[in-house]
Amino acid sequence: MIPAVVSGDRRALARVLSVFEDRREGVDSLVAEAFAAATPAHRIGITGAPGAGKSTLTDALVAEARRRGRTVGVLAVDPTSPFSGGAILGDRVRMQRHVLDEGVFVRSMASRGHLGGLSLAAPQALVALEAAGFDPILVETVGVGQDEVEVAAQADTVIVVLTPGWGDGVQAAKAGVLEIGDVFAVNKADRPGAAETVSDIKAMLAMGHRGDWVPPVVTTVATEATGVVEVWDAVTAHRDHLGEAGLEERRSARRRAELSTAVVEGFRQRAAAMIDVGGEVVADVEAGRMDPWTAARRLLAAD
Amino acid sequence: MIPAVVSGDRRALARVLSVFEDRREGVDSLVAEAFAAATPAHRIGITGAPGAGKSTLTDALVAEARRRGRTVGVLAVDPTSPFSGGAILGDRVRMQRHVLDEGVFVRSMASRGHLGGLSLAAPQALVALEAAGFDPILVETVGVGQDEVEVAAQADTVIVVLTPGWGDGVQAAKAGVLEIGDVFAVNKADRPGAAETVSDIKAMLAMGHRGDWVPPVVTTVATEATGVVEVWDAVTAHRDHLGEAGLEERRSARRRAELSTAVVEGFRQRAAAMIDVGGEVVADVEAGRMDPWTAARRLLAAD
User: Fold this and answer.
1) Which among A80, A134, A161, B300 is least surrounded, fewest beta carbons within 10 Å?
2) Quick check: B166 pLDDT over 80?
3) Segment B197-206, tens digit of pLDDT
4) CA angle (A87, A89, A93) in 5-degree steps
5) A259 touches B275 (CB < 8 A)
6) Which range, A91-100, A111-120, B204-213, B276-285, has the best average confidence (pLDDT)?
7) Residues 6 or more apart in contact with residue B228 via CB below 8 angstroms
8) Which residue out of A263, A281, A297 would a mutagenesis test of the B interface target, given it has the greatest number of B Cβ atoms within 10 Å?
């Protein structure tokens, strides 16, 4: 299937992504094949609070990328409720206007609860999009809590989308958002307070600067495509700032992190199996005859 | 140290909790000793949105328990920012009015980021509080996202604290909160909309009832201790409803889950060590010569 993906077959790509997402038979060899066929693209993460306008900005950036002759992959990660198991946003129809454009490919993926998270399927999906030749690839999240960090970890350049009034939030939470952004977009900038929010962000960035890249803060009205060129330019500037060496450094760290996640996931499956066949020790724990932590050490020592 | 804890030495208890929290030398044997000395208490979880008044209600419930001659342990879990590594709330002084009361013991514990979470230290701390003879034990969280679920998993009875206007939120998120609550407190009930929120909750509970316990919905003004007796009575009724058999069932499932978490945590450490000494395979992954997922399978197969 991967040669078809490489040659531009969109239906093959969709099938491959489904195999990755559902962990179907053959996923391992397909992943390895996709990796071998992939050329790393510029991965742009888009995160921020719900309602900030991330989807609209993503849509506008896709249009801008197309205007510049680039083909664009979009991976939209919907958070899955830890309670209901269903994606909050479901299969909303996204970015309708690009639907007939062969140079754009959009895929939604549910993040699977607490520990699965983006851990395996999403990074592998990005590799498949790279095998299909898309560059850049936009990774968007609905962004509640941890997912933001995970998306940031998948991207070379992270756009944080905020809105006027954001400066009123909790200081610590703000610090966290500031840490992950390479480019800041103050969206809905036609609303009151945009200028104050821009200066708030700049002031906070000036206090806690990291390295020699000063993240640009751009005002946008994504619904009218205002400021989108500026965001694009800021993203491109960040990529140029990283250079091939900086990009390769990020990719290398990312691959190592993916290896770590995959090893942990393998062990997690082993742990589940271990407890399923745990016999007497597990029975002792359930009955309260042995504490769970001593029991865990025994099971691990016997492995 | 555990005999001292059992005999009521509060400083010994504080030291033991620090050993658990910081994973200090000797933690394993202390945990096993505490477990052997502990009699399970009624564990009451208190969760809900930030600002709903959980701390105030916890404080009022402590006073109510004391009026009834019970000794009370409180474990307050502060979420730790995944970004900054520091607890958002820091070492705020909590429940000052109980500070001279030997029958009350309050401990704050930072939840450690993404995967550590409440996974080891908090369940072990609850065992230590049980060894010290406290009953009930209140487990309160500042409650953002996943922590709510984790706290619910630690409790026999879960109180969900909401405020008027809660009914206006996102449907899916509401369903999640409804699933974990055994008792609902609509706090700040002197504000407009309390009655509507009560009927909203009741209507939603009626749609998705689980088993034969119908969670009571109580209105409170925790700052004035209004409705606190009713919450206490509802919590007691839930405990009576569970009975010893029901409680033991919950405890048994909890111990099994704790075993599972501890085994996974052990494997996680093994995974980290494996990658630290991973040699050629890790180098291949970092350089992009081998995909991380194939590499993970090789490392796991060689283990």
Assistant:
1) B300
2) no
3) 999 899 888 8
4) 125
5) yes
6) B276-285
7) B57, B60, B61, B63, B64, B220, B222
8) A263
The CA-based diameter of chain B, rounded to the nearest angstrom, is 68
Tell me the residue length of chain B. 303
Give the pLDDT confidence of A218-267 residue by residue, as tens digits: 999 999 999 999 999 999 999 999 999 999 999 999 999 889 888 888 88
Q: Is residue A263 part of a domain?
A: no
Question: Which pLDDT score, from 0 to 100, does residue A268 have?
Answer: 81
- Residues from chain B that touch A249, judged by Cβ atoms under 8 A, are none
Q: Is the pLDDT of residue B94 over 70?
A: no
> Containing H/E element for B76?
strand B72-79
Q: Of residues A88 and A119, which shows the higher confidence score? A: A119
Q: Given B180, B258, B267, which is nearest A268 (Cβ)?
A: B267
Cα A181 from chain centroid (whole Å): 13
For residue B204, how many C-alpha atoms fall within 13 Å in the half-sphere facing its CB?
22
CATH code of the domain covering residue A73:
3.40.50.300
**181-240 of A, contacting B, C-beta below 8 A:** none
Mean pLDDT of A132-152: 75
Residues in B touching A82 (Cβ below 8 Å): 145-146, 149, 176
Scored b (16 or more CB within 10 A) or e, B7-45 reads eeeeebbebbbebbbeeeeebeebbbbbbebbebbbbbb
The B residues from 105 to 124 touching A (CB cutoff 8 Å) are: 114-115, 120, 123-124
Domain count, chain A: 1
CB nearest B146 (choices: A82, A173, A175): A82
Average pLDDT over residues A192-201: 92
Report the pLDDT value the prediction gives residue B175, as an integer from 0 to 100: 67
Q: Is there a contact between A258 and B115 if contact means CB atoms under 8 Å apart?
A: no
Q: How far is it, in rounded angstroms, from Cα B105 to Cα B107?
A: 7
B228-280 pLDDT tens trace: 999 999 999 999 999 999 999 999 999 998 898 888 888 888 888 888 877 88
B37 touching chain A per CB within 8 A: no
CA-nearest residue to B86 within chain A is A172
- pLDDT for res A87: 38
The DSSP code sequence of B145-164 is THHHHHHHHH-SEEEEEE-T
Predicted complex ipTM: 0.81
Contact at CB, A296 and B265, closer than 8 angstroms: yes
Q: Do B293 and A32 touch (CB under 8 A)?
A: yes
The reply to whether residue A120 touches residue B293, judged by beta carbons under 8 angstroms, is: yes
Residue A287 lies in a domain: no
Interchain CB contact of B144 with A (< 8 Å):
yes
Return the biggest CA–CA distance within chain A.
68
Residue B3 reports pLDDT greater than 60:
yes
Residue A57 falls within a domain, yes or no?
yes
Give domain status of residue B191, yes or no.
Answer: yes
Residues of chain B with C-beta less than 8 angstroms from the C-beta of A274? 263
Question: pLDDT: is B113 or B7 the higher one?
Answer: B7
Provide the residue range defining the domain that includes A227. 39-242
Give the one of A35, A262, A271 whose C-beta lies nearest to B296's C-beta. A262
